[in-house]
Structure formats: structure tokens, C-alpha cells
Amino acid sequence: MKSRIAVVVTLCLTLYLISTSCINKHPISPASDFFYPQTPTPPTPAAYPPPTNLSHLLFGILGSEKASHHRKAYTESWWRPGAARGALFLDKPPSRPWSPTLPPYRVSDDLSGLLHKRDLRAQRMVHGIMEVMREMGEEELRWLVMGDDDTIFYVDNIVEVVSKLDHTSHFYLGGLSEFLMSSYVFSFNEAFGGAGIILSYPLAKALAADMDACLKRYAYLFSSDNTTKNCVADVGANLSPQMGSHQIDLRGDISGLLSAHPLSPLLSLHHFDLVDPIFPSKDRFESTRHLMTAAAADQSRMLQQIICHQRQSNWTVSVAWGYSAQIYEAIFPRSYLQMPLETFRPWYKHRGVLIPYYRLNTRPLSADPCEAPHSFFLEAVEKSAERGEVVTAYSRARPRPLPPCSSHSADGIDRIRVYSPAASRYQMDRCECCDIVGLDNHTAEVRLRECLVGEVIA
Ligand SMILES: *[C@@H]1O[C@H](CO)[C@@H](O)[C@H](O)[C@H]1NC(C)=O
Ligand SMILES: *[C@@H]1O[C@H](CO)[C@@H](O)[C@H](O)[C@H]1NC(C)=O
Ligand SMILES: *[C@@H]1O[C@H](CO)[C@@H](O)[C@H](O)[C@H]1NC(C)=O
Ligand SMILES: *[C@@H]1O[C@H](CO)[C@@H](O)[C@H](O)[C@H]1NC(C)=O
Fold first, then answer.
1. Which residues of the chain carry a pLDDT beneath 50?
2. What is the pLDDT of residue 41?
3. I need a labelling partner for 434 at 20 to 30 A (CA). Which of 56, 207, 213, 248 fits?
4. Total of domains in the chain
């Protein structure tokens, strides 16, 4: 106790001496200088550790030589040559010259000596974690991102999400399947790899160190994601599910899913080969590139759902930023519209497959004119000259083959223009709100803004 008092007294004395000596250095300074100092303020010390950026991420992409020819468009859509680090692992060397717009390729290790079984596809994928760490895992890296050759990543959003986490901890991030049965059969605790698996560096290192032993422990499994989950569990970590990672274990038209994205940054999309092209009258690769034009303008808002009401005409406008917009000829609250419209079909459907199919609450498709939306899809992205806003324009896909809900038909509207601030917005505690700022016979104009205190979207 005594010594503590002594310390406090010494500290006070020291502070007193420092402060008096500082004052004495400027004996003629007028008092106002104390409040309005003329000396430049010292630079704030650099943040430590420096903020995470793309250079701290390492990507390991697993593909096959055969599929690489047509799937390269998916990887090219997000890969940033020269800025992103990583490799694309193939089952055998490429038969054609390798494009510089892709990650450099590596050929996966031959595991037939390690594991005595015939089908090693699942194990090759998991072993890729160790291989990419061995080839490129420098110490300054913070995160390892594993994906498939048909995964579409949103890398700025990944950087944003991981930069909020401690990269020196053990993190296993990823998405669950939308198809309930997949999670039931494999695991509710696993990242479905097509949607990307994000591992903090210490966890990736621990997995790499245990890799061969883990593959032997689970050699009987035929699923790479289930094996990875088991290896992660055995080094002591578990999944932190990410709502923005999309495995897309669905079939058909996924526009309903993409038009009601959860309030979470879009991290990945997958399985574009197996669903309908996401834009009407565009093929899969055109669709991928088209979606990326919006991402290039603002990744943070990609697919974020913003809802506003036009009370005079009794309409609700819902925007999935950068992808689609809908007009409903009725007033619906956000609580309802945040459920995806069930435009899609289950991954598979036969006897023995459990109902319900989805790990999502959905809205059924409806032929009721007050319930069925008018649908618009991204047409163009531009920068407004006056305000510096980003303007995304959505055009009508097709006429809605239904009578109007009331005297206020939206049949004539063929375009929706949405103005959003130029600055990205990663605040995910609350969505943005919007106003309908212009409406003529053909075009609706919507401006995004922060929601007001106490604003209710209903
Ligand atoms: C990324 O962070 C590193 C420091 O960790 C820094 O040297 C580098 O300049 C940063 N890169 C970008 C593009 O900001
Ligand atoms: C996934 O792994 C767990 C744990 O090893 C196992 O019990 C389960 O059967 C596996 N699922 C499939 C479909 O392989
Ligand atoms: C507005 O829509 C609701 C259904 O959501 C309907 O009951 C009501 O009559 C409509 N009002 C007008 C003025 O069209
Ligand atoms: C919009 O539609 C109304 C009614 O159909 C019509 O009277 C008006 O001239 C139209 N305005 C424009 C700018 O086309």
C-alpha cells in the first residue's frame, strides 16, 4: 500500500515538473496559444498492426484441367492479377497456354502413396490447404481463402469482413448450404467449399501441420468439405457462419434468392454452371461480368436490399443493389420482403429428400396481382456528374402478365434508376433507406439515404 502511494506521489511530481518545464519553455506565449496551438499537431501513430488489405490474403483455388477451359471466366471475373496472391491447383498440367488473367497454376500432389484408395478427389481438395501454404504461405499473410474454379469471390468485401477479426486467432469462416438436406447429411458445422472457406493464418498452419494425419484419419470420407470440417474440429476450432457466402445448392432461377440478400456483405457466389443465367437474355459468363460492373462501382452495397414505399400509388419498391429491383402494387413491410421469393428449385427432389427443402424462409410465387412483383434487372452502372453519386439503372425484364392490383398500375414503368452515395457503406447493423424522388409514366427514381432515427420500413 505504502509503495503504491509512493508511486502515485512520484508520478504526480514528475507530471508537475514536466508540465512546468513545458510552460517555462514558452514564457511569453499568450494564454490563447494554449487553446489554439500554432504548432502542427504531431502525426497520429500508424495503426498497429496495419489494417488488413488484399496483400494479406492468400487464395487457393481448386479446379480440374478439363473444366478450366470454360470455367476460367468465373475466376477471371474476380481475380486481380498482380494484386491478389495465390494459385489455382489442377489435377494435371494444362493442355493449353495458361492465361495471365488467371492465378498461376500448380499441379496437385499425388496422394496415392499417402492414402490407399482409388477416388482421391475429396482428399486432393483438402490437401490443397497444405499445398498452397507450403508454396506461398509467407509469414506476413493473415488469411487463407480456399475456393473452387466456379466460385466468384467479392474480394473487397472479404477484406472488409476479415479486417474486423483478429487474424492471430483461429477462425474458420464460410457459408452453409441453402439446401437443408446437404447440411443435415454433411454437417451444420461446416463451410461449403464452393462458397469459399476462409481460414485465419494460425488455423491454416495448424491444419497444414496435421494434414496428412487428418486425411488418414478420415480417409473413408468422400466429401472434401466434411473432411475439412473434421480436420478443423480436431485442431480445436469451429465454424463462424457467414451470411454473405453463397454455396447456391439450388436449381433454376435464383433471382429470388439474390433479390433478398441478408444484411451482410456479399462474399461469394457459386454454381453458376448449374443454375439459370442470373440476368434475362444474357448467358452465364455475360451475367457474371455484368454483375461485376456493379461490384466495380461499389462492392459494399452489392445485393443489399433497400425498400421504400410510394404511398400515393400504394407501391413498394425493393432494390437488390447492383442486381435487380421490384415494384409491388401494394405496401409490404421489410419483414416480409426480406424473405426470398421462391423462384428456385431444390438441389434435388426425390423420395427420401426431406421437406422443407431450404435453410431459408421463403415467400411462395403468387399470381395475385397485389402480391407478384414487376421485375427489373441491372441494365447499366454510371457515375452522376452533378452529385458524384453512383447510378444503377434497372430495366423491366418482361411485361407482368397480370391485371393491376388497383387503379395504380405499374405496367408502364420500364426503368428504375437508383442513386446511391459514392462512398462505400459497410455498416451492417441497419440497412439503408430510400425515397422515391421521381416518378413519371416510364421511370421511377430512387435515392438511397441513411434511415432516420426510429424510421419504420412498413
Ligand atoms: C497493405 O498493407 C501493407 C502493410 O501491412 C502495406 O505495406 C501495403 O502498402 C498495403 N497495400 C495497400 C494496397 O494498401
Ligand atoms: C461427415 O463427417 C462425420 C464425422 O466424421 C460423419 O459422421 C458423417 O457421416 C460424414 N458425412 C458424410 C456424408 O460423409
Ligand atoms: C393499397 O393496397 C392495399 C393492399 O396492400 C389495399 O388493401 C388498399 O385498398 C390499397 N389502397 C389503395 C388506395 O389502392
Ligand atoms: C403520362 O400518362 C398520362 C395518363 O396516361 C398522360 O395523360 C400523360 O400525358 C403522360 N405523360 C407523359 C410525360 O407521357
1. 1-35, 37
2. 62
3. 248
4. 2
What element of type H or E holds 446?
strand 443-450
| pTM > 0.85 | yes
Q: Which three cell numbers stand for residue 10?
A: 512520484
Runs of H (alpha helix) within 304-430: 334-337
Last residue of a domain, one of 194, 212, 241: 241
Taking phi over 0 as left and psi of -120 to 50 as alpha, with beta for the rest, 126 belongs to alpha
Residue type, 456: V
Chain center to CA of 396: 26
Is there a domain that residue 44 lies in? no
Tell me how far apart the alpha carbons of residues 23 and 29 are, in angstroms, rounded to a whole number.
Answer: 9
Asked whether 331 lines ligand 3 (CB < 6 A), one says yes
Residue 14 lies in a domain: no
Q: Is the bond into 369 cis (omega within 30 degrees of 0)?
A: no
Using the mean position of ligand 1's atoms as its centre, give its distance from the Cα of residue 52 in Å.
8
| Domain end marker among 241, 263, 282 | 241
Domain that includes residue 221, residue range: 54-241
Q: Starting from the CA of residue 407, give the closest ligand.
A: 3
Beta 172-174 vs 85-90: how paired, if at all?
unpaired
**CB of 409 sitting under 6 A from ligand 3:** no
